[in-house]
Amino acid sequence: MASVSRTALFGKIHKVLKKYYKPVASPAERTVLEHLLFACVLEDARYEPAEEAFAALRHTFYDWNEVRVTSISELSEVMAVLPDPRAAANRVKRVLHSIFEELYCFDLEEKRKKNLGPTVKWLENMDGTTRFVVAYMVQAALAGHSIPVDTGTMAVFRVLDLVADKQAAAGEVPGMERAVAKSKGVEFGSLVHQLGADYLANPFSPEVREILLAIDPEASKRFAQRRQPRPESPSPANAEGAPLSPVAKPRKKKTEAAVPVTPDAAEAKTAVSPAAESKAPETKPAEGKKAAGSASKKTAEVSREAPVPEKPQDKPPKAEKAEKPEKHAKAEKPEKAEKHEKQAAEASRTSPSSDDLGKRKPR
Length: 363
Hints:
With about 375 residues, the chain is an all-alpha fold.
């Protein structure tokens, strides 16, 4: 953009903003320190809440030294009307600390008498000050020509295409002081600050967009968008260059938890061989009990793990129940037979035979 059109655009901004806002002048009775602290509170905020927060600081605390030693959280509660009270409290506290550590007092009236250049450098090197604070001090307290620009004002200038991205990141608006006369600097700065505060509070406000379009009709191309369009992902192409149609992926089948056992394997596990049955009576009674118990446990585990296919039952369920005691009876028969044999052997030993009775002599 040429310098002439740029100067004309700044003049148009001033003319349009006078229809929507009223210029605000800083009170002349304030001291240099009060101008400095008010600039820390005013950054990125409207004038009304900034004045309210600054008055709360003065009336809540005894003096500025008490403000200096107060925590940032307590200062934020006092200045809760601001859009970002914690940032403002941080700036105020740091500025008061740096002044006290250097001067051991809060009297800055001597800065009015000194040259503007050294005072500006002193402000720039102070901890807690920003570009907005330094420019406001030069304009309100030191009678210089500098227009304060904060985050909201810089965003407005970016929408109006007055600054590039690099200049906006650096916080510089080239040619603004030359385009705006010193006599109109305070008025222009207060009007632009009000527009920037409203834009920062709600960039999608219809009133703010109406003002921006009144200044520059092409500003609609640079308005902030609520949602950014998603970039389209490139579709895969075949050897000829034509895009391939998306192929649906087959769904994965659910794996079964347990593998079914075939009926032949189940019958082979549950069936008892005749040789095992014949050997059962020959074994000792304790071993017979263990074998019968282990066989019943194995059949129960197999029936739980593998579902056996249903077959037509030859016998009613009552007959199946009757088979169970027979197996136990087979294992118990040899025990009873051995007991009877032992008893008979003992009886034969103890009882006298017929020959012994005949040999006895009468008394």
